[in-house]
Design a protein that fits this description.
Layout lengths: L1 H17 L12 E5 L9 E6 L2 E8 L2 E13 L2 E6 L8 H8 L3 E9 L2 E10 L2 E11 L1
Antiparallel strand pairs: 1-2, 1-8, 2-3, 3-4, 4-5, 5-6, 6-7, 7-8
């Protein structure tokens, strides 16, 4: 009897996981996300996306800094990011990024609730690449 219960519970868990929704690129087009701390990222930060706009929110010593970004969607899995000059004053690095046609981002894969990506910029005729991930909250 105990063995049957365990078997039944196991089958139910397998059944539930097989119906779990897998995320797709389109699930990362709108909503709230976070970028976790990793190799080159020393602070986790939040991202809010709505259509063609994105707000990045970084908290440092209790103060929130917001960056406003325009998203140019190429398709559901790739896009170009540029800072929005109508909503913020640019730092030197933000000016540099925009002057080099922004950052091109494309999907590597989706793992769990995270979109793993490669981002590239052309600098002095060379393609510079940085990998990262964005996770759905």
């Amino acid at each position: 009897m105990k063995r049957k219960k365990l078997l039944l519970i196991g089958m139910m868990l397998i059944g539930l996981s097989s119906y779990a929704q897998s995320l797709k690129c389109e699930d990362f087009m709108n909503g709230e996300f976070y970028v976790p701390i990793e190799k080159d990222i020393t602070k986790s930060f939040k991202i809010k996306r709505n259509g063609n706009s994105q707000i990045e929110i970084v908290e440092h010593d209790g103060v929130e800094k917001k960056s406003y970004i325009i998203i140019e969607w190429i398709d559901e899995c790739s896009y170009r990011l540029k800072y929005d000059k109508t909503k913020m004053k640019f730092t030197e690095s933000e000016k540099f990024i925009n002057s080099h046609n922004g950052v091109f981002v494309e999907k590597i894969e989706i793992v769990g609730n995270c979109f793993l990506y490669k981002s590239t910029m052309i600098i002095d005729g060379k393609k510079e690449r940085k990998d990262g991930k964005i996770c759905k909250e």
